[in-house]
Amino acid sequence: MFHIIVEKTYDDVSREAFKVVKEVVKNVENPVLGLATGSSPIGMYKKMIADHNSAGTSYKNVRTWNLDEYVGIPRDHDQSYWTFMHENLFVGLDIKEENIHIPVGDAEDEQAECEAYEKSMEGITVDLQVLGIGVDGHIGFNEPGTPFDSLTHLTELTEQTRQDNARFFDGDIDQVPTSAITMGLATIMRARKIILIATGENKADAIKGMIEGPLTTDCPASILQNHPDVVVVLDEEAASKLNQR
Ligand code: GLP
Q: Which of 9, 13, 119, 228 is deepest in the core (most CB within 10 A)?
């Protein structure tokens, strides 16, 4: 079930998304958040930090699991998702380092790391999973063709995704890792509630596929049609191809 919110500006989108996170963090005892990287949630993360500073919302009892991590770069690399999360969110909150979970991208045994990550979530229900979406409909790094029953796994990144993310690597696609460890689609679907943030015209096709397209692994995000509680926060451009809002 999708609850679709369309806003004018990125700041409005971030504010609406923040409200959903705050409600979970305030009302759930020992909340568990699933977190995402990318440009889409940055504004929301800024608002979480501002609210922590001004209203004192505490993250002391919050545990987090991130969706994914690049393979082959160390945690202290400036483009690792570990670095991204610390710079854009964790540094501004009172979250405990031991409550933060992000796959290890330079683990010696990648397969074992995938299994360990999935196992670390055993018996855990994510109260709110934050998602962005790729222009090809990927969520996390679940690229088109990923089975709907997938758990945390090692995945090859498509040319399109590497191209899209090259902007973070001096615009040089050759520097973008070719693979990643990602929560699977079944892992993501276990979350109690999901919030997906997308802005810009380049996301309009993926958003249409996710909400109004057929349930198909060609658009991995279409699996969310089977989830009972998905809040989708969009700007006008990302919503522009939807028949119904
Ligand atoms: C990456 C991440 C995804 C993210 C997507 C969109 O590939 N693995 O989790 O949703 O990019 O990123 P952006 O929000 O920057 O458009």
A: 13
**Contact 40 CB / ligand 1 (< 6 Å):** yes
3-12, pLDDT tens digit by residue?
999 999 999 9
Q: Which residues does residue 153 pair with via DSSP β-bridges, in sequence order?
A: 182
Residue 218 CB: number of other CB atoms within 10 A?
12
Is 179 a domain residue?
A: yes
Domain membership flag for residue 1: no
Residue 92: domain span:
21-193
For the CA of 40, the closest atom of ligand 1 is 14
d(CA 135, CA 244): 20
Counting the structural domains of the chain, the total is: 1
For residue 142, the domain's CATH number is: 3.40.50.1360
Is 217 among the domain residues? no
CA distance 43 to 12: 9
In the residue annotation, 138 being an active-site residue is answered as yes
Q: Which of 143, 153, 164, 235 is catalytic?
A: 143
What global pTM score does this model have? 0.97
The answer to whether the CB of 37 is under 6 A from ligand 1 is: yes
